[in-house]
Amino acid sequence: QVQLVESGGGLVQAGGSLRLSCAASGRTFSRYAMGWFRQAPGKEREFVAASSWSGGSTYYADSVKGRFTISRDNAKNTVYLQMDSLKPEDTAVYYCAAQEIPDYSGSYYVRWYEYSYWGQGTQVTVSS
Asked: Which of 9, 13, 62, 123 is the most core-located residue (most Cβ within 10 A)?
């Protein structure tokens, strides 16, 4: 198993930036593809960004492409989400997720049900 703890959320004005962190513990971090999802009140959980085990392959939702960047530091067992040019519609609880990979082929996952492990979430609020 792997345990995930997010941090870095908060209140920011539109146009500002935040960096979320997700610290993992319990198993070899490099055996996991990682993802970020978000859920706004009254809405379904939606995909934000995903990373392969090395960070060499990444994928983004169209709504955040060019503004958000996912990265990871396997030596620190941490995945990050750098969020720039934030908009009020980015307001949500952000969750990181982990899924053990079957091989080192560079896989990543974009559907919430493809992930087995989740953090508790961190609130991001963007004011207009």
From this structure: 9
Hey, is 88 helix, strand or coil? helix
Pairwise CA distance, residues 81 & 71, whole Å: 7
Q: How many residues does the chain have?
A: 128
Let me know: does 46 contact 110? Beta carbons within 8 Å.
no
Q: Using pLDDT thresholds of 50, 70 and 90, give the confidence band for residue 53.
A: very high
Alpha carbons within 13 angstroms on the beta-carbon side of residue 15 total: 1
4 neighbors 22 (Cβ within 8 angstroms)? yes
Six token digits for residue 33: 């593809």
